[in-house]
């Protein structure tokens, strides 16, 4: 007897979609081969009549089945994920000392895998290529060195692994939207400027930043975006002026920021402005397919702006579960006004996880939350506060680990988890299956007779891999005007 409220049809659909979000919720048994698998197994799919479902590996073994050697379900249930552990170890090594790895061959040799396996590992667990991860690691190390030392820029460039100053400069501008010289000059000042690309959709980004009027944590006036941010224990107000080809960023008490806070602030603003990821490769991929090309023809350069941090994304996602965007805005306004921290100019910083964890469901019910959603929000905040869900530390971890930890929190399902992965961490290959706006957009874009089911959505979105987060954004923008209630376009 399965110990979860899932129908056979649902389990078959998730098994056929190889959905990792359902790993741990049931076991797929294949009587024709005598093996049992995780729902996410990538092996050839069996005929439905040959499939039986079990609650646990123990139950599957009792039925005479043996574990699959490809997806290794027993390892999963023991909490061991070999590939994940391997690639996270590689990522940690690159982060700590990127200059020690002059090329990807050296990294693959250290890991004992082929270059193709190395590529697959980073694609699955970090949604990027090993080359991109290495370049970003080098730039992160260079940024810290620029802020903490007086060493020449050339010396720093070679130390972090670049073979020429020109390559270092171009990569620094690509990943930081600043020159190394300008970044170093920002060590003590409150103002810095980010370079905007020529196709930067300023008006679209400003509309996205102003999606919650009158937002308690941010506002847009003309081309100026002002927001309150938490940087560790500090609360600051940041004013971003989008003028021409630059974004001028002025920080209250900016001169007093510590190195770690400056690095965090720079990364947050890159994400807020959608400068953390270039859409060029996505546009090139989609542009090669005639039936997909309309998705980008009138929106070249569209980027995915992130929320202020992963906890902000988690709060938005929980408040937005199965309600309209307008309702989510109202709930967030009441929450921040009641328990947020006043900063300046009428703005509030989002309540900390610790502050929300101290509340009871009865405290949130007067705001308009249902008891279930209030309990989910408090439970999630408690998980962040006590370290079971360390959202900030998880930014260096794999998408598979973050998703698993999110799904372990009561009340958080795949839709909420993917919302956080997309809007909080910026992972580029997520799909919020079940989102009503995305389903309607896919129906209209592909001229379907009915809104696609979860498996059909997964199949349609597979064509956009490995850029499905950005494809989701394009579909929302391209086809939901006005957006259907509940669409994540506004969330």
TrEMBL record:
It catalyses: Hydrolysis of alkylated DNA, releasing 3-methyladenine, 3-methylguanine, 7-methylguanine and 7-methyladenine. Signal peptide: none annotated. PROSITE patterns: HTH_ARAC_FAMILY_1, HTH_ARAC_FAMILY_2. Coiled coil: none annotated. Residues 88-186 form the HTH araC/xylS-type domain. Pfam families: Ada_Zn_binding, HhH-GPD, HTH_18. Keywords: Activator, DNA damage, DNA repair, DNA-binding, Metal-binding, Methyltransferase, Transcription, Transcription regulation, Transferase, Zinc. Its cofactor is Zn(2+). The keyword Oxidoreductase does not apply. SUPFAM superfamilies: Ada DNA repair protein, N-terminal domain (N-Ada 10) (SSF57884), DNA-glycosylase (SSF48150), Homeodomain-like (SSF46689). Its EC number is 3.2.2.21. PANTHER family: DNA-3-METHYLADENINE GLYCOSYLASE (PTHR43003:SF5). This is DNA-3-methyladenine glycosylase II. It comes from Deinococcus aetherius.
